[in-house]
Write a structure and sequence with these properties.
Two copies of one chain form a homodimer. Chain A is α+β, with helices and mostly antiparallel strands. Chain A contains four helices and eight strands, in the order αβββαββααβββ. Chain A has helices spanning 7-16, 63-70, 105-114, 117-121, and strands at residues 25-31, 37-43, 54-59, 73-80, 85-96, 153-167, 174-180, 186-190. In chain A, β4 and β5 form a beta hairpin. Chains A, B: Residues 4-96 form the Pyridoxamine 5'-phosphate oxidase Alr4036 family FMN-binding domain.
Amino acid sequence: MSLAPWRSLVTSALHRNRSLVYSRYVQLATIRENGLPANRTVVFRGFLENSNQLKFITDIRSEKAEQIQQKSGAEVCWYFPNTREQFRISGELILVSANSHPHLQPARIKMWQELSDAARLQFVWPEPGQARVKDPQAFAPPAPDSTQPVETFCLLLLDPIQVDHLELRGEPQNRWVYHLQQNQEWSTQAINP
Amino acid sequence: MSLAPWRSLVTSALHRNRSLVYSRYVQLATIRENGLPANRTVVFRGFLENSNQLKFITDIRSEKAEQIQQKSGAEVCWYFPNTREQFRISGELILVSANSHPHLQPARIKMWQELSDAARLQFVWPEPGQARVKDPQAFAPPAPDSTQPVETFCLLLLDPIQVDHLELRGEPQNRWVYHLQQNQEWSTQAINP
């Protein structure tokens, strides 16, 4: 596996925007069962080792986990405020639940172990999206084991096929499209902004 | 028309995040012709008068204008960094081009007049998404008339049907869903984050 040509650009953007904790927040668009788009903020958790796949996490009980199992196509929109640049990364999502993708379980377990206690706790909260449970104690359960992920915890991978990079600070602006070709090489093209 | 119950929350979030120019940037998800999602950053331009519709602008030559004419369903994801809250606004897009929606032409013209010179100039740049025009002069055309919109300029409206509001700062977190019912009233429900 060779690093895609857009990887160093993402790394550089992350570095130059590191003063903003939310520069690791991206918007993930998926398709609902009824064919309409869904869009929500998720936290970028780094790249999977020896790959160009982006790591996220999700709860198996969430709407997006359901949507992904039906339609795996997705596009992430990532805007970096300090450098005024945008990456649109489209590709296929891979949902690594407790019972799928055996070869990715070590990555799922490692991701769980790297989370903060607060992040892990959310996976034992009441079912997301259901009528609000009024008892505040329901949101203060005992902390789950920090070494072994709970059943609800999923690693979510985005395997990119196309990346559209826009720099608003150019004169006038700069925009490139990177595309994964059948030979697994990435093409690069400058396009009009 | 009565203001939707989530309108004051958006207004308040805009006010409390006004120090960040990019708190008016949102991510707009639409569906491509091939059924896959598309997602990009757009600038919120206020609400249409006497309505709950969000205003954006786009170029008739852009991919999103094409997508919208095929499938008008969309979801905006709007994250406010200072207050750590997210609005997901889903609904139908209305593309107001030079040759459509006669009753919305006054709103289209007014939007054009309110733009900065730099914003207006982009609508007479070479065709977006095509192979980069190398001559920099192509991106420095004479400024278009500031009173009468050019043919490529579209007002884009999002007519909301559902709004999902998440406050990360709550204890634990707070989340509500607002839904437009058949009687044109909005329902409100507290749900689990």
